[in-house]
Amino acid sequence: LAKTTQPISMDSYEGQEVNITCSHNNIATNDYITWYQQFPSQGPRFIIQGYKTKVTNEVASLFIPADRKSSTLSLPRVSLSDTAVYYCLVGDENTGGFKTIFGAGTRLFVKA
Amino acid sequence: KAGVTQTPRYLIKTRGQQVTLSCSPISGHRSVSWYQQTPGQGLQFLFEYFSETQRNKGNFPGRFSGRQFSNSRSEMNVSTLELGDSALYLCASSSGGARVGTEAFFGQGTRLTVV
Prior knowledge:
By secondary structure, chain A is mainly beta. Chain A is 0% helix and 52% strand.
């Protein structure tokens, strides 16, 4: 069972770049790394997903080193509305299926 | 493209009763997963259904059950409700392909309060 560890909370200021690192030492060969964002009383929202090296989309970048034992979500120029909980998860390899295990997440608080 | 729809949004039940929650996935998605979220335990995986079959199951007691219909809509049922079952229940749909880590789309959730 691939487990993730990430900081419980982080503070930042508007306009700064935020990097949230997640460790997943037992990641399996076929596992992908996925990040979700969740606002209070809403379901999590997909941010980005990757397997190795670097992935970039319109909202974030994901850096994955060669050993894949960790990953870093990078949010450029955060705003107040980026205050949320960010979850790092790896696909739990299970024969014929997919089981998403969410960790505790990182509570990001963006200040003005 | 419509998103994941969960009904009802809010529910109040009494201890000992049972409850059924509904989830309509995104059109074309065959996998539906259910999660329980509480302040103390965070997001916990309940079970996943794919093509009407339970494919994965979390560590919840047998009071929690689910099913999926041929149109991929899913229901979860909790019998003999306990106060600790008060939570936000989230449903997520995905294409359910063999690739692990497929993006899941979550609904707004059903807020269940047990009194």
